[in-house]
Design goal:
Elements: E1 4-10, E2 17-23, H1 24-43, H2 48-63, H3 68-85, H4 87-94, H5 102-105, E3 110-118, E4 123-128, E5 131-137, E6 148-155, E7 158-163
Parallel strand pairs: 5-7
Antiparallel strand pairs: 1-2, 3-4, 3-6, 4-5, 6-7
Amino acid sequence: MQYNTHMAFRAKKCKIKVVIDLDYMAIIWLCALVFFVIVEAMTVQMLCIWFAASSLVSLVLALIGVPEWAQIVVFFLCTAVLLIFTRPIVKRFMNKPRERTNADRIIGMTAVVIQEINNDKAEGQVSVANQVWTARSTSGEIIPVDTKVEVRSIEGVKAIVEKQEQE
């Protein structure tokens, strides 16, 4: 049994009445399409976009009068084909290796203390990769000038360093 929903729109000035005859499956596919697009926009994981594309195909089939069972079969087949054949290609382009920024690059590098590091006084600077960074020690110990340290992490604009063991 097929139900038809009539939606009437009336232009205020022209007094033109336009009637759009929509099948209930077309409304379901349109709602599914909108839902999947919204979820994809919120997550940006490139998963729901394939369901949205399949919903669009099924919506077109509903509008031209294809039986409901065929619309559902096409939805699942189209989704499977898109997921299997196009998702790996898209993921390859999306998961390019991230270029490390200046802050990320100095982690693990050796630095030289150019101003005594004293966490209690909130003082200390290091020179690393031709840059001067505000520094704090991981252990809280005072590290004198000209000591070699290793950058362990970055917290905001501060390099968190640890004194290197003497060889």
